[in-house]
TrEMBL record:
It comes from the Bacteria. This is Response regulator. The lineage of its organism: Bacteria, Pseudomonadati, Pseudomonadota, Alphaproteobacteria, Hyphomicrobiales. InterPro entries: Bact_response_regulator, CheY-like_superfamily, Sig_transdc_resp-reg_receiver. PROSITE patterns: RESPONSE_REGULATORY. It holds the Pfam family Response_reg.
Length: 130
């Protein structure tokens, strides 16, 4: 199985990928464009989606809405990671189908715990130790 990170900033994508690797051995795929990421989701099922909101082509919210229309993604956790701190965005994201919401800059321990909790494979005490 694999995790899909949809993030157009290469530095942010690298940081998120590095943090996720601390708690999973799953393949991690990075896509910089929402439309291309949506095409990937049509072709395969990811175990988790980590999505920025500000993307070229379509917003993270538009991406989530489109993914949630695919029945095979009904139970797949989607984490939105964005620099936008507006409470309105958080509410809209949850209403759209986002499972969890983190703001940038990402706090490493909280991010690793969130990923581990959703993947169900790494106890919280191991997350802090990695």
């Amino acid at each position: 199985m694999a995790i899909l990170i949809v993030e157009d900033n290469p530095t942010n994508a690298m940081i998120i990928k590095h943090l996720a690797r601390k708690v999973t051995h799953e393949e991690i795929v990075v896509e910089t464009d929402g439309g291309a990421a949506l095409a990937l989701c049509h072709g395969r099922v990811f175990t988790m989606l980590i999505v920025d909101n500000m993307l070229p082509g379509m917003s993270g919210l538009q991406f989530v809405k489109a993914v949630r229309l695919m029945q095979r993604y009904d139970d797949v956790p989607i984490v939105m990671v964005t620099a936008d701190h507006e409470p309105r965005l958080r509410a809209e994201a949850v209403a759209t189908g986002v499972t969890d919401f983190l703001t940038k800059p990402v706090e490493a321990v909280a991010f690793r715990k969130l990923v581990a909790d959703h993947l169900g494979g790494v106890p919280a005490d191991m997350v802090a130790a990695r």
